[in-house]
Structures are given as structure tokens and as C-alpha cells.
């Protein structure tokens, strides 16, 4: 009889302990951030000028794919870029970084580019840091918005958006 009582007591204790353990630690997910460890989100506004040079003696954008179709939108045409980023609109103004990546004509109906780029900065407090851009660039729109999907250095875990405006454009037939 003593063994039956011991078994019953053991089962009761095990059941209560399990229920207690599940009650404390059985949550699928929970937020346990102390208010003191939360950081204020930092907002950075940058203004620089992007120079995409596709022809001449020293192009900064090289065509790497050209499809045989003769569509007006250049659909499928793809460029690899290493474009200067400058402080002012003139290409000879102070260099603050490079735009490095790929853009491709991704629309069959208008001039819509797929932009996949890193803007790598080489000046001031942003030296050695980069932001990563991914998005659609509707070239003929007055203002275009693209996503900032990440970064490195001071921009680690960056998120947000970039606005692009064309200052001037010289048309080159691809």
C-alpha cells in the first residue's frame, strides 16, 4: 500500500510541477525587452548626387546584357555600375562615395528600372559605411521612391526609403 501511495504522490507531484513549468515557460513567444534597453530610432537624411555615365572615355555604367529585341523600353538591358556620388550636382564636385550595383530595364511598357545598389560612403563620419537600395526606379517620374533594405557600418540594420530626382539627363540610345 505504501508503494501505491508513493506512486500516487509522485504522479501528483510530477503533474503539478509540469503544469507549473508550462505556466511559467510555456509561451510560444513574448517580448522581454526592458524599457531601459530600448533605443531611440535614429533618422539620417543625406543629400548627394549620383552620376551615371554610360558613354565616353570613362563610363561608370557598363552594359552587361543586351537582348536582341528592339523594344522602345530597352526591356532586359542590364548595366553594372560604379558611379560617383558627389556633394553637389557638378560631376567635378567633392566625391563622397560610390554607387555600386546593377540596374536593369525591367518593364515592357515604360522606363522602369530594377535597382539593386549599395551606396558606399568614403567621407566624414559615414566613411566605410554603406546603405543598400532595392526597388523600382520609374525614370521619367519627377520623384522616385526606392526602399533602403539594409546597410553596414554606421548604417547597420538601416531601413527606410530613398527619394531620387533627376537634375539633368542626356539621352543616349542604347
Automatic annotation (TrEMBL):
Query: At the top level of its lineage, which domain of life is listed?
Result: Eukaryota
Question: Keyword annotations for this protein?
Answer: Apoplast, Secreted, Signal
Q: Which InterPro entries match?
A: Allene_oxi_cyc_Dirigent, Dirigent
Query: Coiled-coil segments, which residues?
Result: none
Predominant location = secreted
Q: Name one Pfam family in it.
A: Dirigent
UniProt subcellular location: Secreted, Extracellular space, Apoplast
Which segment of the chain is annotated as a signal peptide? 1-26
GO cellular component terms listed in the entry, alphabetical order: apoplast
UniProt record, GO biological process: phenylpropanoid biosynthetic process
Q: What does it do? A: Dirigent proteins impart stereoselectivity on the phenoxy radical-coupling reaction, yielding optically active lignans from two molecules of coniferyl alcohol in the biosynthesis of lignans, flavonolignans, and alkaloids and thus plays a central role in plant secondary metabolism.
Q: Which family does it belong to?
A: Belongs to the plant dirigent protein family.
Q: How does it assemble?
A: Homodimer.
Q: What is this protein called?
A: Dirigent protein
Classification from the root reads: Eukaryota, Viridiplantae, Streptophyta, Embryophyta, Tracheophyta
Amino acid at each position: 500500500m505504501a508503494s501505491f501511495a508513493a506512486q500516487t504522490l509522485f504522479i501528483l507531484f510530477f503533474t503539478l510541477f509540469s503544469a507549473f513549468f508550462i505556466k511559467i515557460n510555456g509561451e510560444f513567444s513574448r517580448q522581454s525587452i526592458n524599457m531601459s534597453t530600448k533605443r531611440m530610432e535614429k533618422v539620417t537624411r543625406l543629400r548627394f548626387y549620383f552620376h551615371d555615365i554610360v558613354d565616353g572615355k570613362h563610363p561608370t555604367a557598363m552594359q552587361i546584357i543586351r537582348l536582341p529585341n528592339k523594344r522602345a523600353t530597352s526591356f532586359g538591358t542590364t548595366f553594372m555600375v560604379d558611379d560617383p556620388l558627389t556633394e553637389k550636382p557638378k560631376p567635378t564636385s567633392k566625391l563622397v562615395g560610390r554607387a555600386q550595383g546593377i540596374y536593369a530595364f525591367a518593364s515592357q511598357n515604360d522606363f522602369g528600372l530594377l535597382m539593386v545598389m549599395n551606396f558606399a560612403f568614403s567621407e566624414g563620419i559615414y566613411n566605410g559605411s554603406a546603405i543598400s537600395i532595392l526597388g523600382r526606379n520609374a525614370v521619367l517620374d519627377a520623384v522616385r521612391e526606392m526602399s533602403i533594405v539594409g546597410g553596414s557600418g554606421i548604417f547597420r540594420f538601416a531601413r527606410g526609403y530613398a527619394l531620387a530626382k533627376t537634375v539633368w539627363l542626356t539621352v543616349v540610345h542604347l
